Amino acid sequence: MRFSIAVLLGVACSLPAQTKTPSTDARQSGAPAGTSQQYNDLPNYDFNGALQKLRGQTTPAIPPLRTNPPSVAAGAASKPAGAPPDWRAPHVELNATAASAASVADAWESSFNLPTPGADGRVLYTFGEGMPVVVCAPLRVCALELEPGEHIQSPPQIGDGRRWEVTPVASGSGLTQTALLIIKPIEAGLDTDLVVPTDRRTYVVRLVSDATRYISTVAFRYPANDPAKWSAFQAQQDAAARSAEEQRKEKSLPDTGTGMTPNALDHLYFDYKVDGDPDMKPVRVLDDGQHTYIFYPNDGRFREVPTLMIDVSGKTELVNFRVDGNRYVVDRLFDKGVLLLGVGKKQKKVTITRAQDYASSANPGGRG
């Protein structure tokens, strides 16, 4: 004889030590009503065995939620209301090339790109290691930060422009100005992608909206830039080493007192005559066979640089020179020159005359 568990428990609870009318006891206890035969057989029922059997049963697993009936093929669209009897869902057969290409793209998009912590709360992705994911939340803003100095070439393209807002902004200025994209979803549970073309690379980013979780700022590491950085660093190291070697050599050579390199000692010529205003007279004039050097005391006596005129074949010509500390350097030789400062009656003048014609100075015997 089979009994429902509710009936058995209800009847068992309602049985007193003395026999009562079954229907009356059931009504008084609120237990489910049973037949007269069930109540007569109740004292002989094996309650312990029934409880052991119930404890031995396992709860069946809950099947996963199915988005389509089992008869509908995966990926097939349901038939819309009012469609003709011969309606078929849109479907494109992929050949081997297309299927293989889609598989390669899916492998890259689903590959793991390790996010690492960066400065000021940034989440760093390695560019090119896989598709980065930006998690945003409604009522929050996310920032996609590009490389400093990188410029966005054209408006970013987003797969779902209706439910996502993307706004370009910039921080900093000059060569280190940084472009950012401010991203906001209008609801949770969205999944789309974003393409950002710049003057250096193209970013492809997946955008996901969550109800509460979000990433405030996403930035990137650029491994492709590492070789260029190392090359620039090595070039700086080499230049510093060469400069140090040149300075070491210069310090090891004797000082000529002229500011020129010692290898010009064999070509120096000092025999110059200087006449004129004593306030404008140089303390020394010499040449090295190619340049003429006019030395003045390092006392800052001149608030303005004098003009140098030289005599060339009986004609006076203006000659430019450069100032190097307390000396004037003329990139040529001359037999006679005039330094002029001021105009009119207040003009000051100094005449510089070479004792030997410089055309014949190639003869070492003519050196002074």
TrEMBL record:
Keywords: Signal. Residues 18-42, 59-83, 233-259 are annotated as: Disordered. It comes from the Bacteria. InterPro entries: Conjugal_tfr_TrbG/VirB9/CagX, TrbG_Ti, VirB9/CagX/TrbG_C, VirB9/CagX/TrbG_C_sf. Transmembrane segments: none annotated. Residues 69-83 have a biased composition (Low complexity). Residues 18-27 have a biased composition (Polar residues). Belongs to the TrbG/VirB9 family. This is P-type conjugative transfer protein TrbG.
